[in-house]
Amino acid sequence: MSENVQRIEVEVAGGYAPAVVNLKQGVPASITFTRTSDQGCLDVVHSKDLHFETELPLNLPQTVAIDTQRAGEYEFSCGMDMMHGKVVIA
């Protein structure tokens, strides 16, 4: 993570690793999700709170921009809402 942009990588394989992403408020950020396993319902990741939904093709990194203007805790999950992760902005 640099001072100008926060870039986080999350591996998607039976869950999210890391499951909790910590971001600094007011600093532009992105999360790159890479699905490395075809098991389960993890072919989509979405967050109503953070306003994103993206398909996760196997082994193809997908990056979403995160608005860090509001502090708080925001959930993200798989397409079936069975696997969950969290973005913490402080």
UniProtKB/TrEMBL annotation:
Top-rank lineage group of the source organism: Bacteria
EC top class, as a word: hydrolase
Every EfeO-type cupredoxin-like domain range: 3-89
Record's keyword terms, sorted: Hydrolase
Entry EC no(s): 3.6.3.4
A GO molecular function held by the record: hydrolase activity
Membrane spanning residue stretches: none
Gene3D superfamilies per record: Cupredoxins - blue copper proteins (2.60.40.420)
Keyword Chaperone found: no
Family annotation (InterPro entries): Cupredoxin, EfeO_Cupredoxin
Protein name listed in UniProt: Copper-exporting ATPase
Organism: Lacticaseibacillus paracasei subsp. paracasei Lpp122
Lineage: Bacteria, Bacillati, Bacillota, Bacilli, Lactobacillales
